[in-house]
Amino acid sequence: MRTYTIYLIRHGAVDETNRGRYIGRTDVHLSEKGKAQLREIRDTAGYPDPEVIYSSPLARCVESCSVIYPKRDIRTVSSLSECDFGEWEGKSAEELAGTKGFADWLRNSDKTPPPGGESGKEFAARVARGFERIVEELSAENCGTAAIVTHGGVIMTILAMYGLPQAESYRWRMDNGYGFAVRITPMLWMRDRVMEVFDTVPFAPKRDENI
Description:
Elements: E1 4-10, H1 32-44, E2 52-55, H2 59-68, E3 75-76, H3 93-96, H4 102-107, H5 120-141, E4 145-150, H6 152-162, E5 163-164, E6 179-184, H7 186-192, E7 195-201
Parallel strand pairs: 1-4, 2-3, 2-4, 5-7
Antiparallel strand pairs: 1-6, 6-7
Helix pairs in contact: 1-2, 5-6
């Protein structure tokens, strides 16, 4: 097994009317502003050029790939979809206040799923299976670099589970169109299932030590 670099990139922004709402499996599209922001990042800061590109199958991620990586083949992976909020999809916390089970879910979402949706534990297990399958695929194909364009919740879950330095998921928040670069080395991955988070995406500018 060789060393792999994977770029975890959050999809572009969706319509602002969806802000503050639980949008998981709901297949919303990128907003025009979101597309413009991705083009600006691509043309100014630049995105890495990986050998393989993976994406959540939801439109906001596939559309982000078409902006960030035009004319490239994309491999969609269903397990990279955002958490399924069940009957609470598209609703805000204000709208759900007082709804049966909502307070319990806020207190312990790992064990308490929304009606018809996923618990945090179920979501994390699904994401983990998908991510580990991608690593196995890269190994089988002897492919050294890949980008994964997916949702903020998916990226935070991956980094909280496998990332070094270790941190709670909320520490790995990122803006739309941005993300993190991780390095997977054989010894650490095979022994401890951990990987190094070594930079942001797009890459942060290097400091001039002479300044």
